[in-house]
Every structure is written in C-alpha cells, then in structure tokens.
Amino acid sequence: METESRPKIGVGVIVRKNGKVLMGKRKGSHGEGSWALPGGHLEFGESIEACILREIAEEVGIQIKNIRRGIFTNDIFSKENKHYVTLFMTADYASGEAQILEPEKCEKWDWFEWDNLPKPLFLPIENLLKEKFDPFEDAKS
Predict the structure, then answer these.
(1) Residues pairing with 86 in the sheet
(2) What is the number of structural domains in the chain?
(3) Which long-range contacts does 56-59 make (Cβ < 8 Å, 24+ apart)?
(4) Beta 20-26 vs 63-77: how paired, if at all?
(5) Residues 64-123: pLDDT tens digits?
(6) Is 140 a member of any domain?
(7) Is residue 141 a part of any domain in this protein?
(8) What is the CATH number of the domain that holds 121?
(9) For residue 5, which of 83, 61, 87 has the smallest C-alpha distance?
C-alpha cells in the first residue's frame, strides 16, 4: 500500500521544428482537455531516452534526433490525488507526419510557438513554464 502513495515518473519530450513545439490535446485521463507534450510513464529498467523514443513511436509516429536532457518538475494533481515527477527532454524533429496513434488518449496534435502555447495547459507544462525553461536556448547562439 505504501508504494501506491509514492510519486510516479513521467517523461515528456519537447520536439522542436521550425521554431515550434509539438503538443497534443489530452483525453481519457487526468488532465483531459489540456494540452501536453508527447510522453508518458517511465517503465522499470528503461532509460529516459528509450522511453522518449517508445512514446513518440506509440503516440505520434514521427522520428526525432538530437535528444538532450532538459529539466524536471514536481507535479501534484490535487483533485486526482496523483503525484508525478516529470522529466523533460528536448529533441529535434527528424521526419514523418504527426498522427493520432492513440485516439483514446489524444484528440489532436499540432505545432505551437513556445511563447504562444494553447490553453489550458497540462499541469507539468504549467510548472515547466514557471521555471522559465527555454527549449530553444541552445538554438539562439
């Protein structure tokens, strides 16, 4: 019983393409109706990079490259009584067309400018913005 009250590890990837990031509108789970990055749960024994590649393949069907570690957030969903630590990675778009491969979990995918994200945002994304993290910082040199 005690392990159920421990935080879970979520992983999100900020996929960059032409100055925009890929976001999906969630459905069928906590945060339904909010916009989130592709990602999911880190599985036992899985590397964070492997998790990102698996989730992108399962959810979106695109290829990514240049995966880099980003930042983490501490996300407490009070209404749902859930607690996650979310690890964010950044990656560049490589190829493919974003598709809805899990229609029970995602309503649609679209590309947005980082300073003009859609609302409402999934809690980990709100917390990420509070940290003033800039996924394009390395591209500005």
Answers:
(1) 10, 73
(2) 1
(3) 56/13, 56/15, 58/101, 58/102, 59/24, 59/101, 59/102, 59/105, 59/106
(4) unpaired
(5) 999 999 999 999 999 999 999 999 999 999 999 999 999 999 999 999 999 999 999 999
(6) no
(7) no
(8) 3.90.79.10
(9) 83
The identity of residue 3, as a single letter, is T
DSSP 3-state helix, strand, coil percentages of the chain (rounded to 5)? 20, 45, 35
Check: CB of residue 101 under 8 Å from CB of residue 60. Answer: yes
Domain hosting residue 59, numbered range: 2-134
Q: Do 52 and 40 meet the contact criterion of CB atoms below 8 Å apart? A: no
Residue 116 lies in a domain: yes
Residue 27 lies in a domain: yes
pTM over 0.85: yes
User: Under 8 Å CB-to-CB from 133, ≥6 apart: which residues?
Assistant: 70, 71, 88
